Structures are given as structure tokens and as C-alpha cells.
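Weekly structure sync - notes
Attendees: PM, LS, DV (DV joined late)
Agenda: review two folding runs queued last week.

Item 1: First target. Sequence and C-alpha cells pasted below for the record.
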Amino acid sequence: MVGEDVLVCGDTTPGREAESAGVTSQVGGRDAEIGGDVGERAVVVLVLLAKPGGAGCAQNLTGNGWADSAVDQERADALMAAASRPDGQDVAPAVDEPVGPEECQFSEGFDYVENPSRTMSCSDTVWELFTTKTEGGLTKNTGWMNFENLQWSVYSPNSTSWLHGAYIAVKAGGWGTLEDGVQGRIDPLCRVSQTSQCTAVQPSNPDDGKLVTLTSGTVYEVTWGENDASDASTQPDKALIRSDVGLRISGPGSGADIPAWSFDDDYLVGRCDARTTSSGNVSRGCVNHVFTPTLNLSVSTRGSSATMVAWAQTNLNWHPGKEGQGEPLHYKREYDTDRKIMCGAFVPDSTMNEALIPYNTKDSCDEYAFDASYENPANTGAIKDGAECAQLTAVQNDNTGVLAADWRDVALLGSSTGSEKCVRGHIPLFLNSAAGGDYGRLVTSARLIDNDAYWVAVNP
């Protein structure tokens, strides 16, 4: 009999299946295998007590597709009662000592950081393993133990290899058939999952891949080097959202009371991609695509180009790209036509051009939201000409000879209702191009692909 992964707490992550016998039902959005046969038997059950996004709970499964017969309903009720454990203890707390990368903040309990950066993903789950026995249609709990599984992955935007770490802590306590613990294997999914598109190498723990005894108070810690093996590693312009960075924890069982069991813990996230650069080379790398990066523009170095963005984020009622007030922008890879709509009829300011001669630059058409973003209204057909945007112009506020300092400020041309879909400005070309270069570097360093979100922050 293979073990059963029984979700008690409404996991909404689709596509996670446990190995078991019987029929498949939907419990809280997750596929869970429920034993369909009735008779005398022992079963190992895994309950997810806490997962990324919040602590776990026990829910009433009636009406959620759990039971396929009156007997199965009795069994469901028994499993729900077992989740409370015989001694009435609460779920064991998270580890209270620093573990893994500092950015994950695992020592903070369930308030850890799931997605601390574009290059890191963190996961903290608490699982309960308990055994049940069914005799004559009546299911009873015969033993329990629980453990916490901390995992992290560290990616590189310039490589399709990454570090995968895990720290499994078996909690104090245990009862019945599992009072003395259980034997288990801890394997990376990159090595054992038939659907994985990655490989695992260089384990740090000499017991990697071997049976270890998971007993009260023990800790198992290991890191692997893992490599992408998807099309993104061999072909250009491919991307794969990873669902194979995680662990498979399994055990052979012991005698009649503890059958074999197996489950996957794959809450880490990541994406690998390959892209053709402007020089014709292929760039490959991996990132945490769930984390939304920020484009930082500095007024001290980008002058009026950055100030124009700040004006738009403050004065337009939709605060484009401003975290905490508006929505993020989304990268658009192809935008030549949109640029023509925004700036095709733009007329440079001759007076500004003359004033910019000492700075060896000239007036140029600048826009926000950027042409290379889906929020630019030229991309949606919301405008036919950049003249429909709020109109700004850079103004000279000093004469130090430093372009960004002397042409720092902007002024509104005409009037604005605040409901405009964009801003178009007369901005010195060097400043305009420099800010565009910052955006391009973010696209590269964060490995933005089409429709990826990003924030924009304007700093002094």
C-alpha cells in the first residue's frame, strides 16, 4: 500500500498529486488520492498543517468531494479527528534559530519571506505524518509525528544552474506506531521526479539518497547544485516556469503497521529562459519570476527624465508603476509601432535646443508609461497620438554645467485633468537615453520576459 497525501487545509496550488491507490478527488483545489478499497488495512496519511502563504488548519471536508461513499465519509471524519492529535498539542512552532539564507528570515516563524528577491525563493511547510487502521469500515488513528521542511533556491540571471537547500526538523513528540520515528529518504525532485526537467548534483550531505531515521528532535540538512534540462538550456527564445524545484520525502514503511509512503513538497518557484540578444548571442539564466523587481531612477543622475516619471506617478490618478499606490508596469518586448504613435508627430523645441548646445545634447521625445510597457496607451489603442497625453517640458533651473543638475525640473504645458493615460515630455536626449539604459539593464539583470511586472521608483 502506498502512502496517501491528504490535504486538510485548502491548498489552492493546482497540479500537485500524491502517490496512492484509489480514486482522485478535489480537496481545496488540490488533487488528493483517497483509497477506494474497503477492508482491514493500515495507511500512512500526510496532512499539510502549514504552507507558504499562511499557517495550516483543519477544515470540514463534507461536500468538498472527499467522500465517495458512506464508508469513505466515516474515514474522512476519523482523519479529521486525528489531525487534532491525541494529546491536544498545537502545531509545532517554526524553527527558532537562524537556518538557511538570511533573506528568507526562517527564524521569524510563519512570517518568513517567500520571495525575498529576484534570485531567491523560500518555502516553509509543516507536515504531519500519521498512521490509521481500518477494520470493518471503522478507521482509527494509530500513531503520529510531525516535521518542518524549510527549503530555498538561489538563482543566477546569468546561469541555468542554481543552489537548492533543505532543512528538515523533526518536532518533539510522537505517539503510537510513530513514537520512535520512521525511516525515510529525502530526494530532490530534479533527481527522482519523472516529470522534472532538471538534474541534481553535488549534494553536501553524505547521506544524500540514503535511508535516514527521522526521529524526534533530529535534523537533516542538505544542499544540491541543480541544473536546467529543459528546452531553455539548448534552444533560444524558450522559457520554463519551474514546478520541479522541491523535495520528495518517502519511506519504505515498517511491518504491517507502517506501510510505504511518499509525497512531494514543491512550493519553491522559479523560471529559466533563453533569449537572443541584439548581438545575436543567446543569453540564459534563471530567476524567481514571482518577485516583482523595481527600476530605480535617480534625479541626481537622470535629471528631468526621472522627474517626469515622478510627476506622472504623483499627478496621474492611476499612479503608474508606483508601488503602494498604483499597479506595476509590464514589460513589452516589441514596441516600435507604439513609439511612432507616441512621438511620430513630436516637434522639438528650438529654444531648448539652443539652450542645450553647451551640454552637447538636444531636445527629445520622452514618454511614460514607457513605450516598452503594456500600460502605454499606444499599445491598447486608447490614444492615436502622443499629443493626447499630459504634456511636460524640462526647464533649466541652474547653470553649473552639469546636465542632470541644471535640467532637473519639469513644467506642465497647458493643463492636466489627472485622468490622462500617459505623459509626454520635452527632455534632453542624454537624460532620456540614460533612463532608457537603466530600464534596459533591469530587463537584463531581472531577466524580464514579455509581460513581466516591474515597479518604478524615483529617488533623489
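Item 2: Second target, run right after the first with the same settings.
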Amino acid sequence: MTEEERKKYGADTVRVMGSRLHPFISGQPFRIRYLQEVLLLVSSWKDKKG
């Protein structure tokens, strides 16, 4: 995708990052704290432009 295409379509599109979590991680109560920390970190990242 060229820079012009990114400028043209970038404002009108949504970007999604999918991730899968194994029950070994998401199904353990003592691991939820670390999962929440990672999700907060990732959601705080700003989209790089250019």
C-alpha cells in the first residue's frame, strides 16, 4: 500500500488486532492480573503513522 492509499483510506477504516489466548493462560485466576497488565499496555500503544 502506498502512502497516498494510506492517507486516502486510513481515516475511514478500522484496524483490528486479533489474538488468541489458550485456556492455560485465560482460565487461571492467578494469571488474570498479568493478562490485564498486558492488555492495558497494548491498548495504550499509539498507532504509528507512515
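Discussion on item 2: The chain has a mean pLDDT of 77.
Action: LS to circulate a short write-up before next sync.
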